[in-house]
Design goal:
The protein has about 210 residues and is mainly beta. It has no helices and 17 strands. The chain has strands at about 15-20, 25-35, 45-50, 55-65, 65, 70-80, 85-95, 95-100, 105-110, 115-120, 125-130, 145-150, 155-160, 165-170, 175-185, 190, 195-200.
Length: about 210
């Protein structure tokens, strides 16, 4: 059945972008929810503009839309290599004209955390804190991966996903111990740059 795209909708459909990483190549999977639109209001033109963090245009591409069974219009575009942080602007149109503007999307690889610190609390609890990765303002941090290693043997003790910039664990045999903490921020583009620091703990046993 032939559909004529002649009408710009009053409601701008929801657009989502998911980065897809294959080795060193990053592609953007773009989905547009058209479930609330009439067929004549569907976009038949998708333009994706990639900007750097100084708002300088790096890439301008048009995507041929495809409609699936979930009433989602989808498309994929590949990114240039060596982009640490970037902005994505998506514009929609059909034969009736341009849709209303869509807010920009920001993506970027995370740098290392800073100020990793650790203290003993209540003789056996170990508190670990760090300062969040410095990121471009539009880039979010989903969570941190904290890897705890034995500082002497180098063996992995535990791996934890942490939603904040602190963590506590218990070591009931903490008289003299060494731990190395490796902290890595994670966002839509995967793991960022890891940062590590080793601590030794000593306390006097009360007879």
């Amino acid at each position: 059945m032939f559909t004529v795209y002649l009408s710009v909708p009053l409601i701008t459909p929801t657009v989502s972008i998911v980065p897809v990483i294959d080795g060193q190549q990053i592609s953007l999977s773009i989905s547009i929810n058209v479930s609330e639109l009439c067929k004549g209001e569907y976009p038949n033109g998708i333009t994706v503009i990639i900007l750097n963090t100084h708002n300088i245009e790096i890439q301008d591409r048009s995507i041929i839309p495809q409609v699936n069974d979930q009433l989602m219009i989808t498309g994929v575009t590949a990114l240039p290599n060596n982009l640490n942080a970037f902005i994505v602007n998506v514009s929609l149109s059909n034969n009736g004209g341009e849709f209303l503007p869509i807010p920009s999307f920001g993506f970027g690889f995370l740098g290392p955390v800073t100020n990793i610190d650790s203290l003993i609390d209540n003789y056996s609890s170990i508190d670990i804190t760090w300062t969040a990765s410095t990121v471009y303002v539009r880039v979010s941090i989903l969570y941190y991966i904290l890897r705890i290693y034995d500082g002497i043997t180098g063996s992995l003790v535990d791996t934890i996903s942490v939603n904040t910039t602190s963590y506590q664990f218990v070591d009931n045999n903490l008289f003299i111990h060494h731990y190395t903490y490796v902290t890595t921020g994670v966002n839509e583009l995967g793991e960022g740059i890891s940062k590590n620091k080793t601590f030794s703990y000593q306390r006097t046993k009360i007879e």
